[in-house]
Amino acid sequence: xxxxxxxxxxxxxxxxxxxxxxxxxxxxxxxxxxxxxxxxxxxxxxxxxxxxxxxxxxxxxxxxxxxxxxxxxxxxxxxxxxxxxxxxxxxxxxxxxxxxxxxxxxxxxxxxxxxxxxxxxxxxxxxxxxxxxxxxxxxxxxxxxxxxxxxxxxxxxxxxxxxxxxxxxxxxxxxxxxxxxxxxxxxxxxxxxxxxxxxxxxxxxxxxxxxxxxxxxxxxxxxxxxxxxxxxxxxxxxxxxxxxxxxxxxxxxxxx
Length: 256
What we know:
The chain is an alpha+beta fold. It has two domains: about 1-135, Immunoglobulin-like, CATH 2.60.40.640; about 140-255, no CATH class. The chain is about 15% helix and about 50% strand. It has helices spanning about 1-10, 140-150, 215-225, 245-255, and strands at about 15-20, 25, 30-40, 45-65, 65-80, 85, 90-100, 110-120, 125-135, 150-160, 170-180, 190-200, 205-210, 230-235. A hairpin with an 8-residue loop joins strand 11 (about 170-180) and strand 12 (about 190-200). Helix 2 packs across helix 4. The longest helix is centred in the middle third of the chain and has 12 residues, at about 140-150. The termini are far apart. The model is unreliable at about 1-15 and about 215-225 (pLDDT under 50). This is Sporulation-control protein. InterPro entries: Ig_E-set, Spore_0_M. It holds the Pfam family Spo0M.
């Protein structure tokens, strides 16, 4: 019977189970996720080589005019040295995982989750997934709010593969696409995209793509040649928060 149980465990039947319990499911980038991992032994004794937590998100990559969804690992945490778990035994391991400052916000179709995996020799490795909400920190929140104050409406938020020209440390950036519905840019811009290339408690580097509305034949030609779009890199700081609307307005207005 023991041999039969080992055979079943090797194909994932009666093997150890893992369940991750988070203290919360809402965080800001840079905060620490705390919780515990519960491992329940299966029908046979098994050696757990490694327990690891991985922070994931997805992004869109375009190739040959087709779009593909890719998964990116943002952070990985190893929890243990190898140990043996007895049949039916329950072990609990607390953990703390610091979210990177550039963890994408869970706006639009953007998902962020923590996967927990066990590496078990000669067996199917069990896993668990826990989705979390990522909310904006003070600087990012102020910037997004300032754009709505300027009459823009968020149309889409998505992580997309990044151009090598940006020399970015991730394979993607998160883009927030706004359209002007009221205010000073209504009728002047088709859309405005903002990305946060780096974020800390004190400042953020932003990338703005200003897409001007076509006017006349010259404007239509510029739009066809994609000459109506301007890429702008700038910094915003914690000190800018009280006047963020004015700060972004000064930057955008130079390129219409």
